[in-house]
């Protein structure tokens, strides 16, 4: 008798940093898990807070069915852009002016490029250099020559006036004033979550369009493909993954992740050093 598959097709949405990869380095086991799951008829999507301009080719090389970037602001499948949201120009200018007035080091994240003030690269090297110096080095990691700082600085464009730039999100890496203290300047259209680089503390964070999050991006894919919510799987570790784990039929948090992610998860898996994505895929029966 021939065996019959009992696992129904799933759609899996993967965060990158701290989930699929460590500082831009993906374990070979994760790459193979994505490829095997897709061969078995499942759909696998990147669902990251990074803008498209900051998603390197070596991450996408595993092959994915679509890419959600900017924490839900942009959705692309099969070369078609299904969603591309940006801050309204007046709100964008207000945020930039406030950050500049408080001498914050930040980057504006757009699908086409990252934008920063002239000279901010020197400050980012000072702030992020020590953080990335301790990045993991272990067996099974692809592209060990990747410099995570260059993931940021490589797509950067610099200017002295950024108030007219179109963007979907801001990553602030160093603010003399805690970002929570600046929110009243930004207005109700703006939200704030902690940086995925937790070592930076409250002087860092991600500034986003209120109401835009990863679950919004997933819903765009769900509607386009006619997916069932119970067949959606989401795996993540950071504050910007909370909504997608809540929304998914199966939400999987990475061990040691943000408390809010762990609180809403249905199950937990190890981080990239422990091949957690591959283990989760196997437990769900996606690899057989």
Describe this protein's structure.
- Helices cover 30% and strands 22% of the residues.
- An 8-stranded mixed sheet has the order 5-4-3-2-1-12-13-14.
- β1, α1 and β2 form a beta-alpha-beta unit.
- 46% of the residues are buried.
Helices and strands in order, then pairings?
Blueprint: E1 11-14, H1 28-39, E2 43-47, H2 57-60, E3 66-69, E4 74-77, E5 80-84, H3 89-101, E6 105-109, E7 114-117, H4 120-133, H5 148-153, E8 156-159, E9 169-174, H6 183-186, E10 190-193, E11 205-209, H7 214-225, E12 232-236, H8 242-247, E13 250-254, H9 259-264, E14 267-269, H10 276-283
Parallel strand pairs: 1-2, 1-12, 2-3, 7-8, 12-13, 13-14
Antiparallel strand pairs: 3-4, 4-5, 6-7, 6-9, 9-11, 10-11
Summarize the structure.
The protein is α/β, with parallel strands linked by helices. The protein has helices at residues 28-39, 57-60, 89-101, 120-133, 148-153, 183-186, 214-225, 242-247, 259-264, 276-283; strands spanning 11-14, 43-47, 66-69, 74-77, 80-84, 105-109, 114-117, 156-159, 169-174, 190-193, 205-209, 232-236, 250-254, 267-269.
Tally of helical runs: 10
SSE ordering = EHEHEEEHEEHHEEHEEHEHEHEH
Can you tell me the overall shape?
globular
User: What would you report as the Rg, rounded to the nearest angstrom?
Assistant: 19 Å
Largest sheet: 8 strands, mixed
**Mean of the pLDDT scores?**
91
End-to-end CA span: 17 Å
Model regions low in confidence, pLDDT < 50 over at least 5 residues: 138-144
Task: Give the number of DSSP strands.
Answer: 14
Helix fraction, binned, reads: 25-40%
Strand portion, in percent? 15-25%
> What's the arrangement of strands in the largest beta sheet?
5-4-3-2-1-12-13-14
Return the structural class. Answer: alpha/beta
């Amino acid at each position: 008798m021939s065996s019959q598959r009992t696992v129904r097709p799933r759609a899996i949405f993967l965060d990158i940093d701290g989930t699929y990869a460590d500082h831009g380095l993906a374990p070979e086991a994760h790459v193979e898990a994505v490829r095997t799951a897709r061969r078995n008829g499942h759909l696998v999507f990147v669902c990251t807070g990074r803008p498209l301009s900051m998603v390197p080719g070596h991450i996408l090389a595993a092959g994915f069915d679509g890419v959600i970037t900017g924490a839900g602001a942009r959705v692309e499948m099969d070369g078609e852009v299904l969603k591309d949201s940006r801050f309204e120009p007046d709100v964008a200018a207000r945020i930039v002016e406030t950050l500049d007035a408080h001498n914050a080091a930040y980057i504006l994240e757009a699908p086409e490029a990252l934008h920063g003030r002239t000279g901010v690269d020197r400050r980012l090297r000072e702030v992020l250099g020590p953080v990335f110096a301790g990045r993991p080095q272990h067996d099974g990691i692809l592209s060990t020559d990747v410099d995570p700082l260059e993931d940021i600085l490589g797509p950067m464009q610099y200017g002295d006036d950024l108030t007219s730039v179109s963007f979907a999100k801001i990553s602030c890496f160093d603010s003399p004033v805690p970002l929570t203290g600046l929110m009243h300047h930004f207005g109700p259209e703006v939200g704030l979550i902690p940086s995925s680089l937790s070592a930076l503390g409250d002087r860092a964070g991600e500034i986003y369009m209120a109401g835009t999050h990863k679950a919004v991006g997933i819903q765009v894919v769900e509607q386009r493909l006619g997916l069932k919510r119970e067949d959606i799987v989401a795996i993540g570790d950071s504050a910007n993954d909370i909504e997608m784990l809540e929304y998914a039929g199966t939400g999987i948090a990475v061990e040691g992740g943000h408390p809010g992610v762990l609180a809403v998860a249905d199950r937990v898996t190890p981080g990239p050093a422990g091949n957690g994505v591959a283990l989760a895929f196997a437990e769900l029966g996606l690899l057989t």
